[in-house]
Amino acid sequence: MAATMNICHHNFPLSNDYQTANRGPRSRVRAFQEATQEAQKPSKMTTRLAESVSHMLHLHIEKPKPKSLRTMINSHDKPILSPKEDISDKWRQIQGSSGWGDLLDPLHPCLRREILKYGEFAQATYDAFDFDSFSEYCGSCRFSRNNLLNKLGLHYHNYNVSKYIYAMSHVDVPQWLKKSHVMDSWSRDSNWMGYVAVSDDKESRRIGRRDIVVAWRGTVAPTEWYEDLQRKLEPIGAGEAKVEHGFLSIYKAKNEYTRYNKSSASEQVITELKRLVKLYKERGEEVSITVTGHSLGGALAVLNAYETATLVPNVPITVVSFGAPRVGNIAFRDELHQKGVKTLRIVVKQDFVPRMPGIVLNESLQKFDDITGTLEWVYAHVGAELKLDVRASPYLKRGFNVLGYHSLETYLHLVDGFVSTESSFRTEARRDVALVNKACDMLVEELRIPHFWYQMANKGLVCNDHGRWVKPERDPEDVPSPTSEGQYNVFHHLESNYQGA
């Protein structure tokens, strides 16, 4: 009768308290011979003893985990962040002034930290979004501007949110924007799509300038928006540049009868950027604009940067995108470069979203320009690329996992562990590995981290004073753009008329 011992990987060392099992003479001889052979190997005493006893008792004992895995498992009492370095004398290089040519492979530690910072700003757009289709505020941010970063534990970045961005949902856009089952919703036509934040005085001194960040939200699953988007190119600007129709629709759509999109997402963000740049330049400060986003959010970030370069001139503009699809054609890519926008795309090799649109018809066809001329309908990626590989991490599963490959938390985990294409996953990576499984099941089972664990307690229900489980009312400060009851009724009436038109 063989006994199997389960070893807890989180805090406890391998146990020496083995159970006794029946064994015959032959097995005892064989075990003795194997133990003798093991004793002759130049291995550690504890390993020889454990393996010898294991053979003699016919017990299954888990193999020792890789050192890097053991290090991560046993580091619960260590901070998840390394100390912040002063980058005030090199911020332009980190923001891509020279195209990141010598900073990506190997990855410069200061650049790694900045990428993680912007990635966490993008992740916040998911963590704070109300996805609950039974919520009267479905499609909004669960927290107010003043509470957002504190509620999500991102206060240590030392940025303050100045503006929320809303995008249309009644136009020809993906079905995932139309989730609410509640008729009297906070807004029938708009969804919270991101925010603008500004570095505070302390962070501005560390990074050498006043940094204005625009973070754009992506989608729940990549297949949702890809099936719904039009997959056709539409002109933008005065030249030959063209961009994907669906992306541009979300960015530009507006309607005067809606509550939150009387102005488009484009107009909302550009107005705020102009205000902030003017404010800080009048104070004599150096200012930068960094636009970030994941998936669809990465595409909107590129559109935002393209427009900002024209309407908010003489400010360094950088895009840091994660798992973003192609946005426009070759002419669009060239115009973006001519405008001085620096774009860093972080891509996971196994993720299929960055290959779209234009899986076949893409920038690789440029080599035939002499024959075909410039092809206006060919999609092209922009900027520099940092390519990551799921197989580099000892904590991630090797099986096929479309959702896990595309998850932003998977991206951030791989960035944190990346040193170079010639190096292994760094053992001193500090970002909590459990975050990877927030919205997927990418972590190896031996870590015993639950799948899809990030959710509201009891899925948002609370037990009231009468013992009944109900959806709680939001704190007044966290209700989207609070207005008086009379104003809300006017907006609601206009929206209802618009829907019936």
From TrEMBL:
GO terms of molecular function: galactolipase activity; phospholipase A1 activity
Transmembrane segments: none
Cellular component terms (Gene Ontology): chloroplast
Coiled coil: none
InterPro entries associated with the record: AB_hydrolase_fold, Fungal_lipase-type
Family listed: Belongs to the AB hydrolase superfamily. Lipase family.
The protein, known as: Fungal lipase-type domain-containing protein
